[in-house]
Every structure is written in structure tokens, then in C-alpha cells.
Design goal:
single chain; binds iron/sulfur cluster; Alpha-Beta Plaits; about 20% helix
Length: about 100
């Protein structure tokens, strides 16, 4: 089961996950008019590295943990894949949206 980026990433896109992914499975784009990133379930090898890299805990370790956003990741991945990578934000950069907190 692939890892999944959840709605907590909407408007944040720290992009640290994409920088550490060993198989280039994470791609940026726009979803619901906000910056977002997705994990391509066809490419993810479940190494778990990205989950520990996200400063706001936006990634879950299995599609079973968030089936609704797993579907969003799978649907958007082909569309986001050609987009150029984002410059990662520093891990201690404060979240842009109210309600989001640094968790690591
Ligand atoms: S679990 Fe590993 S392979 Fe899958 S998206 Fe995260 S870093 Fe990439």
C-alpha cells in the first residue's frame, strides 16, 4: 500500500518529502486552487522516508489510513508528474495555514 499525502499539505508544500524520495514518486501541482503534492502509488516503494521528513505530518503510511486522499493522490499523480520540482522549505519554517503545527 503506498504512502499518501493528505489535505494537511494543501497550501503548505514543504516539498522536503520529494527531495528525499529515492524513486521520485512525489510531484507538486495545484489542487482546489492551492499548492499541493501527491505520491504516485505506481512508483512508491513504501520506504517510509518521506513520512518522517514532513514537518507538519501531512503524510500517512498507507492508503488504508486515508482512503479518500489516497484516491486524490492516485488521480492527480499522472497530471502532476510532468511538473518541475519545488525548492524545499526549511523544516523550521512556520506553517502558512492556521491550525497547522510543526510536529517534528
Ligand atoms: S514512502 Fe518512500 S518511495 Fe514512497 S513516496 Fe515516500 S519516500 Fe518515496
Amino acid at each position: 500500500m503506498p504512502h499518501v499525502i493528505t489535505e494537511t499539505c494543501l497550501g503548505e508544500t514543504y516539498a522536503r518529502c520529494a527531495a528525499v524520495c529515492p524513486v521520485d514518486a512525489i510531484h507538486p501541482g495545484i489542487h482546489n486552487e492551492q499548492p499541493f503534492m501527491v505520491i504516485d502509488p505506481e512508483t512508491c516503494i513504501d520506504c517510509d522516508i518521506c513520512l518522517h521528513e514532513c514537518p507538519i505530518g501531512a503524510i500517512v503510511g498507507s492508503a488504508d489510513d486515508n482512503p479518500a486522499w489516497a484516491k486524490v493522490n492516485a488521480e492527480l499523480a499522472p497530471k502532476f508528474k510532468p511538473n518541475p520540482p519545488l525548492e524545499p522549505r526549511p523544516a523550521d519554517d512556520q506553517p502558512r495555514k492556521p491550525g497547522h503545527k510543526l510536529v517534528r
